[in-house]
């Protein structure tokens, strides 16, 4: 067989020897660039040096076409199984992971279930009154044995952080993430990207491989991976690529991506059209994620309270609402919440009627005309929670 290179060839001939394709001579395209065809492996190897530069350029273009052309829609795992609405990122803040059925249910559906007087899982109706973490982990392990990617990824996270009664074991966590990723978990792909970029669990630092995991997840609609790519590209000085990633992530509801491209626009690293596209896309995403139950949950800072407290939070009697909120800030975990709020406190400030001021994790507007409210301490926050109860629209996240 002759492998002598020819000057040029048509689309139906070997790029190296010029042999025409026929019933007996099957031509195969270059897998990387899809630009040229070869009649044999020998011809492809012989033509490699001449074709290498054009091949790399075109393969990079094809890679970007798929990277930026795909992943504009939410993946299946981003939807609440109860209300079927997409869950706002970060999902860990706006939803709860149910260890009984390894489903992630939005805060709105969780609060609605508790308001109806039930402490059971909103999805599978299993009791969530576990005596300890071991019982919860045992349920997740049962799902992991059935090769459920969400359960395996969850266990990987717990091994990584060493919580839920599990001893910290980073290599074991990486193994479980790898298994979950092979089964289709996008979160596991994102975690593996972090692991390779930071050399976790005995892995060698490999930026290329880390980016590959993030890109795979981003092409399938994983918002966090898309934001990570934008952040990394920005650190590398690739502002245009970073802006394109942030725009897509903002359209998926990632607030930090919107903030990032806003900062880029202020610095002149992103165009006005890019920021406008990101802002409109983010607003459209928020509108699609909106529901009455979620608004109530966000307004009261729902974090999985008892059914009695949950019902009081949505009671028509303002005194019941205030009592429930007082209980939240004086019960389990209250010290951390008070500490977090006190760290926000500096000098006393006054908010005129109708204006918004910052108070810890949320902003509260004084809706009472002709009055002022002082921001001094957590005691103020508790004493004036009836403002939020009586005027729901005044509370903004």
UniProtKB/TrEMBL annotation:
PANTHER family: ERAD-ASSOCIATED E3 UBIQUITIN-PROTEIN LIGASE COMPONENT HRD3, SEL-1-LIKE PROTEIN. Residues 14-55 form the MYND-type domain. Residues 331-366 are annotated as: Disordered. Belongs to the sel-1 family. The keyword 4Fe-4S does not apply. InterPro entries: Sel1-like (IPR006597), Sel1_AlgK (IPR050767), TPR-like_helical_dom_sf (IPR011990), Znf_MYND (IPR002893), Znf_RING (IPR001841). It comes from the Eukaryota. The keyword Zinc applies. Residues 80-125 form the RING-type domain. It comes from Thalassiosira oceanica. Keywords: Metal-binding, Zinc, Zinc-finger. GO terms for molecular function: zinc ion binding. This is MYND-type domain-containing protein.
């Amino acid at each position: 067989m002759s492998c002598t290179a020819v000057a040029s060839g048509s689309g139906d001939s070997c790029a190296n020897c010029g042999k025409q394709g026929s019933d007996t001579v099957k031509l195969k395209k270059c897998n990387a660039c899809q630009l040229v065809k070869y009649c044999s492996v020998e011809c492809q190897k012989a033509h490699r040096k001449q074709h290498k530069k054009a091949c790399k350029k075109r393969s990079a273009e094809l890679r970007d076409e798929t990277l930026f052309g795909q992943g504009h829609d939410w993946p299946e795992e981003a939807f609440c199984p109860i209300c079927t609405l997409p869950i706002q990122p970060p999902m860990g803040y706006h939803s709860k992971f149910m260890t009984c059925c390894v489903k992630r249910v939005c805060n709105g559906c969780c609060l609605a279930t508790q308001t109806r007087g039930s402490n059971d899982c909103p999805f599978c109706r299993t009791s969530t009154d576990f005596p300890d973490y071991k019982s919860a982990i045992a349920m997740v392990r049962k799902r992991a044995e059935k090769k459920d990617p969400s359960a395996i990824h969850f266990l990987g996270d717990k091994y990584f952080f060493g919580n839920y009664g599990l001893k910290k074991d980073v290599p074991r966590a990486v193994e479980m993430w790898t298994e979950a990723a092979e089964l289709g978990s996008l979160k596991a792909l994102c975690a593996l990207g972090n692991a390779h970029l930071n050399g976790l669990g005995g892995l060698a630092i490999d930026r290329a491989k880390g980016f590959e995991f993030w890109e795979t997840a981003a092409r399938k609609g994983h918002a966090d991976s898309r934001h990570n790519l934008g952040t990394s590209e920005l650190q590398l000085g690739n502002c245009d690529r970073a802006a394109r990633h942030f725009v897509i992530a903002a359209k998926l509801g990632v607030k930090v991506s919107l903030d990032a491209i806003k900062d880029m626009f202020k610095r002149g690293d992103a165009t006005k059209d890019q920021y406008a596209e990101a802002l409109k896309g983010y607003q459209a995403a928020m509108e699609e994620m909106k529901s009455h139950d979620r608004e109530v949950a966000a307004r009261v800072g729902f974090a999985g309270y008892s059914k009695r407290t949950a019902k009081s939070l949505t009671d028509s009697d303002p005194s019941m609402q205030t009592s429930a909120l007082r209980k939240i800030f004086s019960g389990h975990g209250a010290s951390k919440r008070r500490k977090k709020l006190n760290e926000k406190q500096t000098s006393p400030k006054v908010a005129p009627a109708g204006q918004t001021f910052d108070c810890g994790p949320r902003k509260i507007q004084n809706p009472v005309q002709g009055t002022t409210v002082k921001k001094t301490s957590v005691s103020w926050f508790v004493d004036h929670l009836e403002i939020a109860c009586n005027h729901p629209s005044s509370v903004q996240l």
